[in-house]
């Protein structure tokens, strides 16, 4: 087995919580903080920490606005985030193909 593809996995995306966030955002143009929090069953603090890590890498954009006079925080994948996520998924597929029993 070639360990090289495993070493190429993006550690920022690979963490379970961040992978879930990236997966959700890849399937939707934009999601609210509360939608992600409730769907992923994360605490506010935990979700905030993961979003900040993804934002620092340039993978996620965060927008703050108001809806019905209430604060609304939404997140979306950046172009770099979509590219990084696609590369991550392609690498996982390569690992699966390479290690599939014949």
Please write out the topology.
Layout: H1 4-8, H2 11-14, H3 16-26, E1 31-32, H4 33-40, H5 44-56, E2 60-67, E3 70-77, H6 79-99
Describe the structure.
By secondary structure, the protein is α+β, with helices and mostly antiparallel strands. It has one domain: Arc Repressor Mutant, subunit A, CATH 1.10.10. The chain is 61% helix and 18% strand. The chain has helices spanning 4-8, 11-14, 16-26, 33-40, 44-56, 79-99; strands at 31-32, 60-67, 70-77. The mean pLDDT is 93.
Structural class by SSE content = alpha+beta
CATH homologous superfamily grouping: Winged helix-like DNA-binding domain superfamily/Winged helix DNA-binding domain
Biggest β-sheet: count, sense, barrel?
3 strands, antiparallel
User: Can you tell me the overall shape?
Assistant: elongated
Cα-atom radius of gyration: 16 Å
Order of helices and strands: HHHEHHEEH
Please indicate the percent range of residues in DSSP E strands (runs of 2 or more): 15-25%
* CATH-assigned fold name: Arc Repressor Mutant, subunit A
Number of helices: 6
Provide the domain count. Answer: 1
First CA to last CA: what distance? 13 Å
* Top CATH class: Mainly Alpha
Average pLDDT over all residues: 93
Strands ordered across the widest β-sheet: 1-3-2
How many DSSP E strands?
Answer: 3
CATH-level-2 architecture? Orthogonal Bundle
Question: Which segments are poorly predicted (pLDDT under 50) over 5 or more consecutive residues?
Answer: none
The helicity comes to 55-70%
């Amino acid at each position: 087995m070639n360990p090289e593809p495993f070493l190429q996995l993006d550690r920022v995306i690979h963490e379970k919580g961040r992978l879930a966030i990236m997966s959700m955002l890849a399937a939707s143009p934009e999601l609210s903080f509360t939608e992600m929090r409730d769907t992923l069953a994360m605490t506010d603090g935990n979700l905030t920490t993961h979003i900040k890590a993804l934002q620092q890498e340039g993978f996620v954009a965060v927008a703050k606005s108001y809806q019905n006079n209430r604060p609304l925080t939404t997140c979306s994948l950046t172009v770099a985030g979509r590219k990084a996520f696609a590369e991550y998924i392609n690498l996982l597929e390569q690992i699966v193909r390479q290690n599939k029993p014949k």
